[in-house]
């Protein structure tokens, strides 16, 4: 477990990291992690652990220092503590980041803060971890989030193939483009998707009318086993239903299969 250890005081400027271009083949040393936490002990321990494992690390203690840091350099992943002081807590800042930047966000919550974890995923966090935690698990989750965003970067660098129509899937009144990873409504307006939401939709449309367990969905989209108390899949399914279902309370596209999990049922054929 993550245990607090006495640490020598250190002054680290959140603006100290130089801006440099990133590509889709990043290794740990190329990954910049922004830690937003008002607890100096946790902040310093995470800094030391991640830096020792080859990550570039910047630090912020509240909303203002987070924004200042991002103005200097946009990170690849943000570790966001829920219980920040001031008018903007970690959940508000997670929403702020998701509306403006296409970067990974991992919410850090207290052991008993189930509601905070749920809300964190609902406002767009890619993952969450509860205190106290093993830093090795946190490192694994950071790498998992980075892999998902690397897939997006890799696909964006590929030449766009000649359209066959097979890459555009009709989802009720919306259309999902599997090449550009974009979802549009019937007016042609883009509906924002997180990396995890796209991976889930892609998993479903590639396996129509096939019931899938939560364990299968987590293994495919996040490369990790499902915990019986892990509600992240259910929360993301709820978010997806709000985006693609005509009536999210009576879903027709992503249906619940009692005792198993979920199943995608296409209501229209693939269109060009």
What does the model show?
The chain is an alpha/beta fold and 272 residues long. The chain folds into two domains: 28-156, Response regulator (Rossmann fold, 3-Layer(aba) Sandwich), CATH 3.40.50; 168-264, Winged helix-like DNA-binding domain superfamily/Winged helix DNA-binding domain (Arc Repressor Mutant, subunit A, Orthogonal Bundle). 36% of the residues lie in helices and 18% in strands. The protein has eight helices and twelve strands. It has a five-stranded parallel beta sheet, sandwiched between helices. It has a four-stranded antiparallel beta sheet with strand order 6-7-8-9, covered by helices on one side. β8 (182-184) and β9 (190-191) form a beta hairpin.
Question: Which features would summarize this protein structure in a list?
Answer:
elongated, 272 residues, four-stranded antiparallel beta sheet, disordered N terminus, 12 strands, alpha/beta, 36% helix, Arc Repressor Mutant, subunit A, Rossmann fold, five-stranded parallel beta sheet
């Amino acid at each position: 477990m993550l245990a607090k250890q006495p640490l020598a005081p250190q002054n680290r400027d959140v603006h100290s990291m130089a801006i440099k271009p990133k590509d889709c083949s990043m290794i740990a040393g190329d990954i910049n992690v922004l830690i937003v936490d008002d607890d100096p002990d946790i902040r310093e321990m995470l800094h030391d652990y991640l830096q020792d494992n080859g990550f570039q690390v910047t630090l912020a203690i509240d909303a203002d220092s987070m924004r200042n840091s991002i103005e200097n350099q946009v990170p690849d992943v943000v570790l966001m503590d829920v219980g920040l002081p001031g008018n903007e807590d970690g959940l508000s800042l997670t929403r702020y980041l998701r509306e403006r930047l296409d970067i990974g966000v991992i919410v850090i919550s207290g052991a008993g803060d189930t509601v905070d974890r749920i809300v964190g995923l609902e406002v767009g966090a890619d993952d969450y971890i509860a205190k106290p935690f093993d830093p090795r698990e946190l490192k694994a989750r950071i790498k998992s989030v980075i892999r998902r965003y690397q897939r997006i970067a890799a696909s964006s660098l590929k030449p766009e193939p000649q359209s066959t129509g097979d890459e555009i899937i009709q989802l009720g009144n919306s259309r999902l483009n599997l090449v550009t990873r974009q979802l549009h409504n019937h007016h042609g307006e883009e509906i924002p998707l997180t990396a995890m939401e796209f991976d889930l939709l892609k998993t479903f449309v590639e396996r129509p009318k096939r019931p899938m367990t939560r364990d299968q969905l987590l293994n495919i989209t996040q490369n990790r086993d499902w915990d019986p108390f892990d509600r992240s899949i259910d929360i993301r399914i709820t978010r997806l239903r709000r985006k693609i279902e005509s009536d999210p309370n009576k879903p027709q596209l992503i249906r619940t299969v009692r005792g198993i999990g979920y199943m995608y049922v296409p209501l229209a054929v693939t269109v060009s």
